[in-house]
Amino acid sequence: MAYDGFLCYADSDIRYAQRVVDVLQNEPYNLRICINSEELLDGDTSSSGSSVSAELIIQRCKKILVVITPEFEKSSQHEFIAKVANALKDDKNQRILIMLFRECDLPVSVRHITVCDLTKATVEWAWHRISAGLKNNARSPDDTTSQLKNIYLGHSLSKKESHETVTGSSSGGTEGGTQAEAKDISNKNPEVQYDAFVSYSPEDQSFVSEMVEKMKQEPWNLQLFVPGKDVADISSDYIAHRCRKIILVLTPSFLENPECLYHIKLAIDLAMDRNRIIPVLLESCSIPNTIKHFAMMDCTRLELIDWFWQRLGQTIKQPLY
Fold first, then answer.
1. What proportion of the chain, given as a percentage, has pLDDT over 70?
2. What is the pLDDT of residues 8-46, one digit of tens each?
3. In what order do the strands lie in the sheet with 297-298?
4. Residue range 174-190, pLDDT digits in tens
5. CA 102, CA 198: separation in Å to the nearest integer?
6. 3-state secondary structure of 310
7. Separation CA 59–CA 81 (nearest Å)
8. Which residues of 271-281 are buried (b: 16+ CB within 10 A; e: fewer)?
9. What is the mean pLDDT of residues 220-249?
C-alpha cells in the first residue's frame, strides 16, 4: 500500500489536518499520510476526473483518518464517511480511525467507532494510539470492501489548491487588523527575531529558565523571548511581528494573572489557521475553552520529561501554515 492513512476532514479544519501530517510523518512515527486525494489517482483508470472512490482509498491506504470537529458534520466529507462507515460496519479490520480535535457530539454515523481524543491533556497518548492503529495491517480488500466501489469522495482539492490551503498562501482577504498583521508573519520574515514568545506566571520562572536553556541547545538551537528578562515592557505588536509562535505555560497561577490572560486573547487573535499557539500544561488546571482545541503539551508527568522536551522542540520548529 502506498500510504498508511488517508486523511478526511472539513475544509475549515485544515489546521488540524496539517497537525496530523506534521506529527505522524515525522519522528518518532514516520508514517505516510495522504492529504491530497489526487495522489491516489496516478495510474488509475477506474476513477474519472478528480473523483476518488472509497474502494481506491482502501486499496492504496491502510486506514482512513477522520478529523472530527463541530464543522465536520456540516461538510461534504461527512456524507462520504457516513456511507463508508455503513459499508464497513461488518468489517473486522477497523479501517476507520476517528480523531476528536474539538469537543462536540459525534455524528451518529461514526459513534460505533473507537475515538482517539485529542482534546485532553493526555494528547501524546492519543497520538501513540493513532500510530498503533495505522501500523496494524489490514487484510487485503475483500467482498466487504468491494461495495465501496460506488462511493465517491464528494470534494477533492487539486494539488495546487491543497498546497495553497495548507501553506496559507491563498490570496483571499482576512478580517480584522490583527489577523491581517498575522498574515505577514512568515517563516523567513526578516523582522522575526525569536522562535517563540513565552507567557508564564512569575511563580514558574525556574521552569521557564530551564525551557530557554533546553531549547537553545542542540539539536534545537531555538531562541525564546521571555518578558521581564529580555525586555521589561513588551507590546502586542512586538509579539506579533518579532516572535513566530506563542508558548502559554499553564498553571493555576497563570490563570489568575491578568497579563497572562491577555496573552491568551492575543494568541487567539494572532492564531488564525496557523499553528502559532503552543499550550504547555505545567500543572493541572482548568483549561480555558478558547484554547482547548489546540494540541496540549503535557509536562505534568516527570517520567515523560525527555519526551516532552523532544516534542516541544519539534513543535516550535514546525513551520507556520
1. 72
2. 998 888 888 888 988 998 888 999 998 877 677 665 444
3. 224-225, 194-199, 243-250, 277-281, 297-298
4. 333 333 333 334 455 55
5. 24
6. helix
7. 16
8. bbbbbbbbbbb
9. 78
Residue whose C-alpha is closest to residue 167's, from 313, 3, 21 = 21
| 236 three-state secondary structure | helix
- The SS3 of residue 176 is coil
Task: Cell numbers for 180, please give them.
Answer: 491581517
User: Of 138 and 105, which is predicted with more confidence?
Assistant: 105
- 283 neighbors 298 (Cβ within 8 angstroms): no
Phi, psi (deg, nearest 5) at residue 68: -105, 125
pLDDT of residue 119: 84
- Distance (Å) of CA 250 to CA 10, 38, 281: 30, 41, 5
Q: What is the pLDDT of residue 253?
A: 93
- Please count the residues of the chain: 321
Residue 295 DSSP code: P
Whether this model's pTM surpasses 0.85:
no
Question: Based on the number of CB atoms within 10 Å of its own CB, is 153 exposed (0-12), middle (13-18) or buried (19 or more)?
Answer: buried
Structural contact between residues 81 and 109, judged by C-beta atoms closer than 8 angstroms: yes
Q: DSSP for 262-277, please give it.
A: HHHHHHHHHHTTS--E
Residue with cell 513543535: 315
Rg of the chain over all Cα atoms, to the nearest angstrom: 21
